[in-house]
Amino acid sequence: MPTCQSCSKKWTWKQTIKTIFRFECPYCAKRQYESASSRIRSGVFWLVPLVFLPINAGFGFSVGLALLIAVILGFIILGLYPFILKLSNEEEPYW
Ligand SMILES: [Zn+2]
């Protein structure tokens, strides 16, 4: 789970999901950023549904089923995201 770099409090899974688009600490209300190393990892993470698309084409699933699986995958990834997320006080450059 992510730990706030400002007040060193650990965020719960629920708190992380709640603030996933803003990264605002629920304890000290300080803005947090995703650390560069975490961003690279989560980038790979978010690619998983894209990798799924050609596999889907290979199996010849219908568009509706493919969409359903993509949505389910999206939820699974969102659910796992707090586990890989690492926070930083400042916006770190990628390189
Ligand atoms: Zn905090």
Could you describe the 3D structure shown?
- With 95 residues, this protein is mostly helical.
- The chain is 55% helix and 4% strand.
- It has a two-stranded antiparallel sheet.
- Helix 2 (36-59) packs antiparallel against helix 3 (63-84).
- The model has no long low-confidence stretch (mean pLDDT 89).
- Bound molecules: zinc ion.
- Residues 4, 6-7, 9, 25, 27-28, 30 line the site of zinc ion.
The biggest beta sheet reads:
2 strands, antiparallel
Q: Give the neighbour order of strands across the main sheet.
A: 1-2
How many helices in DSSP terms?
A: 3
Please identify the structural class as seen in this structure.
Answer: mainly alpha
Which distinct ligands sit in these coordinates?
A: zinc ion
Helicity level, as a percent range?
40-55%
Task: Output the radius of gyration.
Answer: 16 Å
| pLDDT < 50 runs, ≥5 residues | none
- Principal-axes geometry comes out as elongated
Mean pLDDT across all residues, rounded?
A: 89
N-to-C SSE series? HEHHE
Q: What distance lies between the first and last C-alpha atoms, to the nearest angstrom? A: 24 Å
